[in-house]
Amino acid sequence: MTYTLYGAPVSLYTGKARSYLRTQGVDFVEMSPGSDRYLNHIIPTVGRWIIPCLETPDGAIIQDGADIIDHFDLGDGREHRRFSVRPESPTLLAISHLFEIFGGEGLLRPAMHYRWNFDDLNLDFIMAEFALNMPQSMSGEQADEMFIKSSGRMRKAATVFGVSPESQPLIESAFEEWLDLFSAHLADHPYLLGGRPTLGDYGLIAAMWAHLYRDPAPSLLIKRRAPRVGRWVERMTTGEPYVHEYGGVEDSTLFDDTDLPETLLAMMRFVAAEYLPEITAHVDVANVWLGEHPEIAAGTNGLDDPANRSLTGGRGPEGSATFDWRGIRITTGVMPYRFWLLQRLHDDLAASGADDQRRARAVFSAGGIEPILDLRTLRRVERAGHLEVWGPLI
Ligand SMILES: N[C@@H](CCC(=O)N[C@@H](CS)C(=O)NCC(=O)O)C(=O)O
């Protein structure tokens, strides 16, 4: 028996899980969310349509990219993976978590923009790709109709991430800056933290794979402007060594945390400019909302539809945060999942010794992103029954 990954080539978060499984040499097959097994077994078990889901050889179902990685990195799946993706150095681990959050959550603006605002180049491709997700019983025509309906919803969802006519030129210039910084880093290092992928690379591949490398419009941009980034994407999707430009020899050593390359610090400063105002505003909004809703029982998210992943179930202005971003004001939806990822950074760092914590702080300070170490929601986010729920009142 092997693992089964329920996901889609076109899906952002499936890309994270698939990249992990491939680079770690895990034996798995991928199945469509249109398959009978997904529709009749996975959805009823998980309680909603969501990908990726991983079914283990003994029939357990794991929903969520980070949990899928943890199953192999820390849990029962350990014997099936090649190496841990958690650096031993607490400073590197904290940086790795930072990029895991940024890649999956902070790059959603360019991901949504480059997918949904370039119909001339993208639309035929995306439509064909989405057909792969539809129930197998559907005809081609029905699949196209379904695409038109669901793509309307997804285009609208792009605005929840701050994509608007005003922000679009800035999204493009910021993404080009990101490509230049990442490309400069990759000139000497095959991965974010040196010679092997860590959590941060798997976070980054989420946005960088399906939306930003596979869709035609941004693919062209990456290939023209930052081919090295394209090769990192390809490296992240194979279990084979793919390091021609580094002498063809694999050296899996990670950086010395007392001597980090300036190119990495420059990428951290980019994360600070791009994402720190947003996550700070989200924590502030969540804390106001939590303060106003002490009645929410621990172990629930307090929503009429518990499957909804936004703070307030997508209703009312109190579910969004407005903040300054690159000289304009933008508004984005608040999602507790991000706080859960952030807690993982905080928890791992808090478990290290005082000297390590000081070193990590100094590095985050040099990267302009130290304040992220102190952002806390009034209640912790926990995961239960495949959902994000609030922990007890503290
Ligand atoms: N944090 C989750 C996010 C999963 C997620 O948002 N998946 C998208 C596809 S890439 C989805 O299933 N969306 C369905 C929906 O929101 O209705 C994970 O990593 O599993």
Describe the structure.
The chain has 394 residues and is α+β, with helices and mostly antiparallel strands. It folds into two domains: 3-80, Glutaredoxin (3-Layer(aba) Sandwich), CATH 3.40.30; 90-111 and 168-390, no CATH class. The chain has helices spanning 12-23, 36-46, 65-73, 90-106, 108-116, 119-131, 140-160, 168-186, 199-214, 216-225, 227-235, 262-292, 336-350, 354-366, and strands at residues 3-6, 28-31, 53-55, 61-63, 320-325, 328-333, 381-384, 387-390. Strands 2-1-3-4 form a four-stranded mixed sheet, with helices on both faces. A two-stranded antiparallel ribbon has the order 5-6. Helix 5 crosses helix 7 (140-160) and helix 5 packs parallel to helix 9 (199-214). Bound molecules: glutathione. Glutathione binds at residues 11-13, 49-52, 63-65, 337.
Lay out the secondary structure.
Blueprint: E1 3-6, H1 12-23, E2 28-31, H2 36-46, E3 53-55, E4 61-63, H3 65-73, H4 90-106, H5 108-116, H6 119-131, H7 140-160, H8 168-186, H9 199-214, H10 216-225, H11 227-235, H12 262-292, E5 320-325, E6 328-333, H13 336-350, H14 354-366, E7 381-384, E8 387-390
Parallel strand pairs: 1-2
Antiparallel strand pairs: 1-3, 3-4, 5-6, 7-8
Helix pairs in contact: 1-3, 1-9, 4-9, 4-12, 4-13, 4-14, 5-7, 5-9, 6-7, 8-11, 8-12, 9-10, 10-11
The structure holds glutathione.
Glutathione is lined by residues 11-13, 49-52, 63-65, 337.
